[in-house]
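REQUEST FORM: STRUCTURE PREDICTION
Request ID: SP-0412
Submitted by: Lab K.M.
Chain count: 1
Length (residues): 233
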Amino acid sequence: MKRLLSPLIACALLLASSAWSQEAAIRKNLGERIPQLQQIDEVSKTPIPGLFEVRVNGAEIYYTDAEANYLVQGNLIDTRLKRNLTEERIDKLTAINFAALPFKDAFTIVRGNGSRKLAVFEDPNCGYCKRFEKDLQKINNVTVYLFLYPILSPDSTEKSKNIWCAKDKTKAWQDWMVRDVTPAAASCDSTAIARNVEMGRKFKITGTPTLVFADGSRVPGAIGADQVEKRLN
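STATUS: Completed
RESULT:
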C-alpha cells in the first residue's frame, strides 16, 4: 500500500506545482502587459484544456491561455448542454442574499396572493424603469420590494423623497411611473434612500432597473413580463 501511495502523492504534488506555476505565469504576464489587470482576484481552469478563467473586480470574467499570450472577452458556451457558462458564473458571483436585504428601506407592492418574491432597484427618472413598471402590471401573485435608487440626477433624489414620504407610497410611485402623475412635494425622514444608494454601490448596482430574485440571482436592465414570470417560477 505504501508503494502505491507514494507515486500517487508525488503525482498530486507535481500537478499542484504545475497549476501554481501556470497561475503565477498568467498573473505575472497579464500584470506586466495589461496594467488594468495587475490586481487579479482569481485564476481558475475552465472545462476547455489549456483555457483559464481570469476574474477581476469581483465579477469581470476574461479567458486566457497558460502563458497569457492571448486574452478573450466574451461568453463561454457549452454547446452540448446549451448552457452559457460565463453567464452562470457571473450569476453566481453577483448573487445577493435575498433574505438579508433591508426590506425596511423598501416599500412593498403585493399583487394576488403575493407568494412569489422580487426586489427591484429603480430610479424614478429612468425611462427603462417606466417601461418595466408597465410590464410588471401584468405579473400576478407576487410581492415586490421596491428600493428607490436615485442615481441619475438630483431631481431623481427629490422625486424619490416625495414618493417615500407620500401617505400612500405605492400609489405615488405607480401614479408617476405608469400614469405620469408627478408626485406631490412631501417631507419626512428619507434617510432610507441614502442607505439604498450606499447598499447599491456595495453590491455594484450600476444601472436601473436591477431585479433581484428570491434565489439571489440578479438581472440588470428592463426585461419583459414573460422573462420575469420565467425567473419567478
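NOTES: The mean pLDDT is 92.
Reviewed by: T.R.
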